[in-house]
DNA sequence: GCATCGATATATCGATTCGATATATCGTGC
DNA sequence: GCACGATATATCGAATCGATATATCGATGC
C-alpha cells in the first residue's frame, strides 16, 4: 500500500523522503499517519527491487519543499553557488528518488489490483485513479460502491444483543457515515458517466 | 489498544478468544479488522502480566457463541452430558479468560489515559466510557471535540498546491466527514450535560 | 563571527499488528 | 461413517507504528 502511494507521487516527479511524507500526510490526513519507520524501509525495498532509483537532487523540481529555492535574484544565486561548490554536502542531506520503468509497471499493477480494498487502499487508489482509463476507473468506483452497500446492510440490521447507550450511538453514527460515503461515491460515479457519454468521439468499447 | 478492548469485554463476563474477536469486529467494524495474529498474542501478554486468567469455561455465560448451547430440552441435555463426561476434550477447545483485579486497574488506567487518541482509541474508549464517572466522560468527549475542531481548521484551508479532481473530491469529502463527526460529538456532549444537570441530587464536585 | 533554535531530513530500534496459513474440534446432512 | 462448514486456537514473516537519535540548514539575536 505504501508502495503504491510512493510510486504514485514519484510518477509526477522525483522527490525525497521527507517530502513524500509531508504530501502523503497532508492528503491522507488522519486516516493514515505515515511514519518514517515505515517510509524509509519502503523506499529501500522499492530501490532494491528496481522500482525507483536515487537521482541527483537537482533533478527534483526546486521549490518542492520551500528550502533553498534559487530565486533567480542575486541573493538566491549566491546561496545556490555555495551549494554547488560544496558538491553534495557529505551526506545526511536529501536523497531524491525517481520512478523507473519497472516502477511504472508496478504502479499500474498495484493500482489495478482488485484484491485489497480497505479504507486506506481505496483512498490511495482514488488519489491516483486519474492514471486509469475511464472504464477501469468506473469499475474501481463501482467496486467501492458495492462494498459500502454491503457494509450498510450489515450495519442497518438490529443490534444483535443488548448494548449500552454509547455503543449504540457509535453503531448508529457509523451507519450514517457509511451512507454519507455511499452518497459521495454515487456522485463520483454519476460524474464519470456524464463525462464518458459526453465525449462520444470514440466508440463504446464495453 | 487491543488490551483495552479485551479488558473492556472481559469486564462484563469471561469469554474466549474467538468470541472476543467476533464481538470486537462486529462493533468496531471496518475501522479495525482485528486479526487472530494480534488477538492471541495480546491474550498471552495480558495473562503473563496477571491482568486476565484462564477460567473454567462453564464460568462463561453459555449461548455466548451459539455453539453447543444446553437448550434444556432432552436433545440439549444429551449433548451437554456428552461434553461433561469427556472432561474438557483434550485441548484445542475453547479457553475462557476472566479479568482479574489487576486487570480492572489496568483497564481504568488505559481508559483514562489521555495520551493516545487516534480514531481507533476513541472508538474503543467510547465503547467503554460507561465505566467512567460522568465528569471524566465529559472531559473525554470534550477532548475529542477539540481534536476534531483542530482537524477541521486544517482541512478547511485552501489546498496548497494544485491537485487533480479526485484528490480534491477526497479532501472535500473528508472535511464534510469531520464536520459530521463533530456534530455527532456535540450531540453526545449535549446529552451528557443535560443528564448531569438533570439529576441534581449530589453537589458538583468540580 | 558565533551560539542557539526550530524546521528539515535520514535512519534505526523494539513492539505491535496484519494477513496468511495450519490444524483441531464440533454439529449437520447425507 | 464421512464430508463439510463453522468454530476455535496458534504461529510465522512482513509491514507498520511510535519513539528516539542524529545531522544539516536558515534565521535570529548578540
What's a concise summary of this model?
2 copies of one chain form a homodimer. By secondary structure, chain A is mostly helical.
List keywords for this structure.
globular; 8 helices; DNA-binding; 3-stranded antiparallel beta sheet; mainly alpha; homodimer
How big a fraction of the residues of chain A is strand? Answer: under 5%
Low-confidence stretches of chain A: 59-91
- The end-to-end span of chain A amounts to 30 Å
Largest interface: A-B, 32 and 32 residues
Strand and helix order of chain A: HEHHEHEHHHH
Structural class call of chain A reads mainly alpha
Strand order of the largest sheet of chain A: 1-3-2
Shape of chain A: globular
Record field, number of beta strands of chain A: 3
Approximate helicity band of chain A:
55-70%
> Looking at the chains present, what oligomeric state does this protein adopt?
homodimer
Q: The biggest beta sheet of chain A, please?
A: 3 strands, antiparallel
Radius of gyration of chain A: 22 Å
Count of helical regions of chain A: 8
Arithmetic mean of pLDDT of chain A: 81
Write structural notes for this entry.
The structure is a homodimer of 206-residue chains. Chain A contains 8 helices and 3 strands. Chain A has 206 residues and is mainly α. In chain A, helix 1 packs across helix 5 and helix 7 (134-156) packs antiparallel against helix 8. The A-B interface holds A 26-27, 29-31, 33, 118-119, 123, 126-127, 129-130, 151, 155, 160, 163-167, 169-171, 173-174, 176-177, 180-181, 184, 188 and B 26-27, 29-31, 33, 118-119, 123, 126-127, 129-130, 151, 155, 160, 163-167, 169-171, 173-174, 176-177, 180-181, 184, 188. Chain A binds a DNA duplex (30 and 30 nucleotides) through helix 2 and helix 3.
Amino acid at each position: 500500500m505504501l508502495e503504491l502511494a510512493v510510486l504514485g507521487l514519484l510518477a509526477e516527479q522525483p522527490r525525497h523522503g521527507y517530502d513524500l511524507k509531508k504530501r502523503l500526510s497532508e492528503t491522507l490526513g488522519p486516516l493514515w499517519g505515515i511514519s518514517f519507520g515505515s517510509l524509509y524501509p519502503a523506499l529501500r525495498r522499492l530501490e532494491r527491487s528496481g522500482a525507483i532509483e536515487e537521482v541527483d537532487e537537482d533533478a527534483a523540481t526546486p521549490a518542492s519543499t520551500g528550502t533553498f529555492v534559487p530565486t533567480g535574484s542575486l541573493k538566491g544565486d549566491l546561496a545556490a553557488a555555495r551549494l554547488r561548490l560544496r558538491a553534495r554536502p557529505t551526506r545526511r542531506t536529501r536523497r531524491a528518488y525517481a520512478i523507473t520503468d519497472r516502477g511504472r509497471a508496478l504502479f499500474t499493477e498495484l493500482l489495478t489490483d482488485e484484491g485489497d480494498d480497505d479504507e486506506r487502499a481505496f483512498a490511495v487508489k482514488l488519489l491516483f485513479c486519474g492514471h486509469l482509463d475511464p472504464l477501469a476507473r468506473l469499475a474501481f468506483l463501482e467496486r467501492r460502491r458495492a462494498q459500502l452497500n454491503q457494509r450498510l446492510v450489515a450495519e442497518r440490521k438490529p443490534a444483535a444483543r443488548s448494548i449500552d447507550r454509547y455503543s449504540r450511538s457509535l453503531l448508529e453514527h457509523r451507519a450514517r457515515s457509511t451512507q454519507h460515503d455511499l452518497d459521495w461515491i454515487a456522485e463520483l460515479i454519476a460524474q464519470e458517466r456524464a463525462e464518458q457519454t459526453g465525449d462520444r468521439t470514440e466508440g463504446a468499447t464495453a
